[in-house]
């Protein structure tokens, strides 16, 4: 019941948040926080009781067995870590949205998003996975479109149509897979044997669906628009969770399921990954819009995730999952602060900023810490993730991967240059008299501090994360031997 | 035909027929008329539910199987909700009882049509379903409805004529009308194929399949949206079931030839429907062209007629369609009545003015677009599964791409309603009972969500039917 309640409670509480606004303007956010706390409680329980390997907490709800349309929920180490991230971000996003306009509808959509999100990571039935996966688009569409920045409507439409179009390929892949195996169940699909042609077709179709969500070059163009126009807390959901859905789907439903085809396509994945890393890095270097720059650095990190997955070794996959966690924490912080910078200076552009460290040292210190983590400062999650991915890639692909560390230098380049221009140096004339340029209220600092604390803790003690899923990854890595 | 099912049809038709009479005699008010017809609906829905027991009669003309019961029940519910909304939006009109009476008789015709197993009864049922709608389309809404009425009448007459010509060819060859006899007597012959093409063309008019779709948007747009809801939702779903019976029960001998024709028509119909829908500025025309596109999706399942899951696709899509399309038009009707909103520009910010109605409209639109967990999603899954299973992966891919692009105009309406600022300042009608009108629409939304997750009833019925027709 615990997993089902984690999906249903947010969805069922959601209308209360909407209607509750009429009673009390503060009710929706407290409801959202209460639900997040409930999810945190459940997740803690899952972490504590998780036996260490394999699927646990299985729940099976018969809905229509002849079509294999049954809600089958379970978590293993990998889903557990991602559910943990979901819940962590649910808390921080709620706190960051404390003073949002029209809180009823806003938190209604947040709650409507959280339930399916848990469902994506906990579903062992492919069709239900797709249902949860697709449903998350709807709340995100309205979040971007209603609470977003100037160009929000364009971004929301593009986001919805683009990612929905990608899902269509995923759905076709699922249908073809079902017709060859007559099952949607993960464990039965693992055992099922497919003809190589069908398997390759399914692999490619599903890969398009996942690659757009991750996103990787050349399917990434929805992301900068969506992330930039979305309100900052929603950028956190987009970067922290929506992108992870793509990577998780790729891992669980393609790499584990089609080891042979994945081996066949691994060089392609690695190539796309390296391309993504460099392309996004150079785009970020050229970007003057501060949030767009963070968005491209986010794509850059997802390239590392894909590279780790493409190595098809236990070490690489573990590193990729770790990188997902690190990315979720670091990029969330950067998105939040980029949003605050715009909020306080009324400009998005690095060239119009300068020396704001002097006015808001507290916020900017956190920003610098976040940037250093994104660059890969030892002692933060960014370092461990990138290093582990690179090691795995070296191991598998050899010296070709010597170019990847260069990308790290690239990311150091664009971040440091941005810091120098926007944050340090003399304070710009136009910003001197700005009344709005002051430190954040306490409640909005809490989530930022939570991100920093989290990525430092998992950076210093990476085994906290690795230990949760390493046995699972080791088991699946046997498939590639 | 089961005697209870027949009684359900009779009660529905008689209630509809006597409603205007009662009104002439006693001058009933709107709410009384809605109550009387609701009683008729409830009784006949109950009779449909118990129609698996009891004697049966007229067996060479009509059948009552799981498909009839299931789709009949869904059509009744959808029609009942349509009746309530139509009553509400036309309550000031003095001919409202005549309109509702026609609606009920047309629904009775639809119930007959889905049980027809004989070409004679099929044509009679189709005429019973269509005749009242000729009147309803003319129902004075504005001067455009006159053009719509004439167009609809001529197209309808042409459709029946075409179909009758095909039927007469079959009769000339075999001397039989009933499906069961035809399937035994027909043989592979060019003339049979020709007859099949005529019958198919007749259905094509009813389903607004390309190239017979031209009347559809004009009529749906020209008439009162409540009537359009009946025409595009209920009567089209019933026509799909009738076509399914013709294809699987009477003409399996030429189904091999038909598969490709269906595939071609499906591909063109959905593409044309979606492309034209994208170009529209009036919401009713968008819904009308989306209805053309949905005819295309259903025809994909027909194209896959060699595999059993195609029946699931047809049934599921008809079942989902009867709710989502009817309800979408009804939401449009309510917005038109309250806010006078016709065009996309009028819809700006309406979601902020009517949060609940807007949210329901969104559910219907998302269901039409195929977003889970609504029934429109799972029905598309079945349709495309059928296509892939029958070896038409290209058709499935085309359908899925169409479905993905169709999202653009559904989401465009959502965008207008929720992301833009309102342009209409005040409602043109603001009746005191506005909050109750949400109830019928909410009922339909619940049906959509339940059908989207609880696959049992529809898939079981289709499995039974598939084994009956030997798939």
Question: Which strand order do you get reading across the main beta sheet of chain A?
Answer: 1-2
Low-confidence stretches of chain A: none
Largest sheet of chain A: 2 strands, antiparallel
Distance between the termini of chain A: 37 Å
Characterization of this structure:
- The complex is a heterodimer of chains A (481) and B (471).
- Chain A contains 20 helices and two strands.
- With 481 residues, chain A is mostly helical.
- The two termini of chain A are 37 Å apart.
- With 471 residues, chain B is mostly helical.
- Chain B has one domain (3-468).
- The A-B interface holds A 63-64, 66-67, 69, 105, 127, 130-131, 134-135, 137-138, 141-142, 145-146, 152-153, 156-157, 160-161, 164-165, 167-169, 171-172, 175-176, 178-179 and B 355, 366, 371-373, 377, 381, 384-385, 388-389, 393, 396-397, 400-401, 403-405, 407-408, 411-412, 414-415, 418-420, 453-456, 459, 463.
Secondary-structure blueprint of this entry?
The complex is a heterodimer of chains A (481) and B (471).
Chain A (H helix, E strand, L loop, with lengths): L1 H22 L3 H23 L6 E9 L4 E7 L1 H20 L6 H20 L3 H10 L1 H11 L4 H30 L4 H6 L4 H18 L8 H8 L2 H24 L3 H28 L3 H21 L3 H32 L15 H15 L5 H17 L6 H20 L5 H4 L9 H19 L2 H15 L4
Antiparallel strand pairs in A: 1-2
Helix pairs in contact in A: 1-2, 1-4, 2-3, 2-4, 3-4, 3-11, 3-14, 3-19, 3-20, 4-5, 4-6, 5-7, 6-7, 7-9, 7-10, 9-11, 10-11, 10-13, 11-13, 11-14, 12-13, 12-17, 13-14, 13-16, 14-15, 14-16, 14-19, 14-20, 15-17, 15-19, 16-19
Chain B lengths: L2 H24 L3 H20 L16 H24 L6 H18 L5 H20 L5 H31 L4 H7 L4 H18 L7 H8 L2 H26 L4 H24 L4 H21 L5 H31 L10 H4 L1 H15 L5 H15 L3 H26 L19 H16 L2 H13 L3
């Amino acid at each position: 019941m615990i997993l089902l309640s984690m999906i249903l409670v947010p969805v069922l509480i959601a209308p209360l948040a909407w209607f509750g606004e009429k009673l009390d303007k503060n009710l929706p956010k407290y409801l959202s926080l209460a639900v997040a706390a409930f999810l945190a409680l459940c997740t803690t329980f899952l972490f504590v009781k998780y036996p260490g390997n394999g699927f646990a907490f299985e729940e099976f709800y018969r809905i229509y067995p002849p079509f294999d349309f049954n809600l089958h929920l379970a978590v293993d180490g990998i889903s557990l870590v991602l559910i943990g991230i979901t819940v962590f971000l649910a808390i921080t996003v709620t706190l960051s949205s404390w003073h949002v306009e029209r809180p009823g509808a806003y938190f209604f959509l947040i709650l409507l998003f959280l339930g399916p999100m848990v469902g994506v990571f906990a579903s062992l039935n492919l069709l239900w996975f797709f249902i949860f996966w697709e449903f998350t688009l709807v709340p995100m569409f309205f979040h971007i479109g209603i609470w977003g920045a100037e160009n929000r409507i364009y971004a929301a439409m593009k986001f919805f149509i683009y990612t929905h179009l990608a899902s269509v390929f995923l759905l076709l892949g699922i249908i073809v897979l079902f017709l060859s195996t007559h099952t949607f169940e993960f464990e039965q699909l693992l055992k099922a044997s497919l003809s190589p042609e069908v398997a390759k077709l399914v692999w490619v179709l599903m890969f398009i669906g996942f690659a757009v969500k991750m996103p990787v070059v050349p399917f990434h163009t929805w992301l900068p628009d969506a992330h930039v126009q979305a309100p900052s807390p929603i950028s956190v959901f987009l970067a922290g969770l929506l992108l992870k859905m793509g990577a998780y789907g790729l891992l669980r439903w393609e790499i584990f399921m089609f080891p042979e085809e994945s081996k066949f396509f691994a060089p392609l994945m690695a190539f796309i990954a390296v391309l993504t890393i460099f392309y996004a890095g150079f785009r970020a270097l050229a970007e003057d819009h501060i949030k767009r720059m963070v968005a491209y650095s986010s794509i850059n990190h997802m390239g590392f995730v894909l590279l780790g997955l493409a190595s098809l070794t236990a070490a690489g996959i573990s590193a990729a999952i770790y990188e997902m966690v690190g990315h979720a924490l670091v990029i969330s912080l950067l998105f939040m602060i980029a949003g605050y910078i715009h909020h306080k200076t009324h400009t998005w552009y690095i060239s119009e900023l300068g020396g704001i460290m002097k006015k808001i040292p507290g916020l900017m210190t956190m920003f610098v810490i976040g940037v250093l983590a994104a660059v890969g400062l030892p002692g933060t999650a960014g370092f461990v993730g990138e290093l582990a991915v690179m090691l795995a890639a070296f191991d598998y692909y050899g010296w070709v991967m010597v170019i990847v560390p260069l990308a790290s230098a690239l990311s150091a380049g664009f971040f440091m240059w941005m810091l120098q221009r926007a944050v340090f140096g003399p304070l710009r004339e136009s910003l001197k008299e700005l009344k709005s340029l002051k430190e954040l209220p306490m409640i909005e600092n809490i989530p930022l501090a939570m991100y920093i604390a989290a990525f430092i803790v998992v950076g210093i003690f990476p085994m906290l994360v690795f230990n949760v899923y390493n046995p699972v990854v080791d088991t699946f890595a046997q498939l590639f031997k | 035909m089961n005697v209870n099912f027949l009684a359900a049809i009779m009660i529905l038709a008689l209630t509809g027929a006597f409603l205007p009479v009662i009104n002439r005699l006693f001058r009933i008010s709107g709410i009384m008329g809605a109550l009387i017809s609701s009683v008729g609906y409830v009784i006949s829905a109950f009779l449909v539910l118990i129609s698996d027991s009891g004697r049966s009669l007229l067996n060479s003309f009509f059948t009552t199987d799981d498909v009839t019961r299931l789709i009949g029940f869904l059509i009744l519910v959808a029609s009942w909700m349509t009746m309530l909304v139509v009553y509400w939006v036309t309550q000031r009109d003095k001919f409202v009882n005549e309109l509702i009476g026609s609606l009920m008789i047309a629904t009775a015709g639809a119930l007959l049509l889905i049980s027809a197993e004989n070409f004679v009864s099929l044509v009679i049922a189709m005429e019973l379903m269509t005749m009242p709608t000729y009147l309803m389309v003319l129902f004075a809404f504005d001067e455009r409805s006159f053009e719509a009425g004439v167009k609809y009448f001529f197209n309808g007459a042409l459709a029946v004529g075409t179909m009758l010509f095909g039927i007469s060819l079959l009769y000339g060859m075999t001397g039989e009308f009933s499906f069961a006899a035809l399937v035994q007597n027909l043989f592979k012959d060019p003339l049979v194929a020709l007859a099949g093409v005529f019958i198919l063309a007749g259905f094509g008019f009813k389903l607004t399949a390309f190239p017979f779709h031209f009347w559809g948007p004009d009529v749906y747009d020209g008439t009162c949206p409540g009537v359009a809801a009946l025409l595009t939702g209920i009567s089209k779903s019933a026509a799909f079931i009738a076509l399914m019976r013709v294809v699987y029960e009477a003409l399996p001998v030429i189904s091999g030839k038909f598969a490709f024709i269906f595939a071609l028509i499906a591909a063109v119909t959905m593409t044309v429907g979606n492309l034209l829908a994208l170009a529209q500025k009036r919401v009713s025309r968008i819904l009308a062209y989306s209805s053309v596109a949905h005819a295309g999706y259903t025809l994909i399942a027909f194209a896959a007629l060699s595999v059993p899951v195609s029946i699931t696709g047809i049934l599921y899509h008809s079942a989902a369609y009867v709710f989502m399309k009817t309800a979408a038009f009804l939401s449009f009707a309510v917005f038109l009545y309250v806010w006078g909103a016709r065009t996309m520009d009028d819809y700006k910010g309406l979601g902020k003015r009517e949060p609940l109605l807007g949210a329901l409209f969104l559910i219907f639109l998302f269901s039409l677009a195929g977003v889970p967990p609504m029934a429109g999603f799972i029905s598309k899954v079945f349709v495309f599964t059928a296509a892939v299973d029958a070896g038409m992966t290209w058709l499935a891919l085309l359908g899925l791409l169409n479905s993905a692009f169709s999202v653009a105009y559904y989401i465009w309406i959502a965008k207008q309603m929720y992301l833009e600022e309102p342009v209409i300042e005040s409602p043109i009608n603001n009746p005191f009972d506005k909050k109750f009108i949400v109830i019928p629409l909410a009922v339909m939304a619940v049906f959509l969500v339940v059908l989207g997750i609880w696959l049992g009833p529809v898939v079981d019925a289709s499995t039974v039917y598939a084994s009956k027709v030997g798939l």
